Each structure stands twice: as C-alpha cells, then as structure tokens.
Amino acid sequence: MIRAALVSALVVLSAPAFAAPNEQLLRSIEHRLAFWNVGEVDYSALTTSQAAALHLKLSNAPSRFSGRSSFFRQELLTILQWDGSEKNYSLNKSSD
Q: 8, 43, 54, 81: which is deepest, by most CB within 10 A?
C-alpha cells in the first residue's frame, strides 16, 4: 500500500506544474477530506502541488480519536489555503 502511494505521488509530482491534478486522485482526496470534515473545497481549483501534498498527508492519517487528530486537521486546512506564494519563499533570504 505504501508502495502504491509512493508511485502515485511520483506520477503526480512528475506531471508538469500547469497540468490539472489527476481526476482519480481528486476523487480519492475528496472522500478522505470529507471524512476529516474540512468543509467546502473547490476540487477543480486545487493545484498539482496541493493535490500531491494532500495525498501524501492523508496517506499517513492518524486515527480520528487520537491526540493528533486536531493538529492533523489543521495541517490539511493549511495545505488547502496555499495560494502559490510558497514557491517564492526561500530559506536563504538575502539582506534587503
């Protein structure tokens, strides 16, 4: 199962950045996000990087009744709020 998730993630990540995420991947994410009750999501507006990040995050989801479930749900919401500006962030900031 982990191997299948890794292969799917690699396929998604190898797609061009401008390509829409795979429809099957979006349906899988949709069902799992509904389970985590994250609210309304416009799946047609998800970027490839968001879909890949959600897929990887959801592949290692904790139990809904664990102590990590609230933190995990917040991580999902953070990924859903990405607007593309994270690509412009650099760890090696130059002095302005």
A: 54
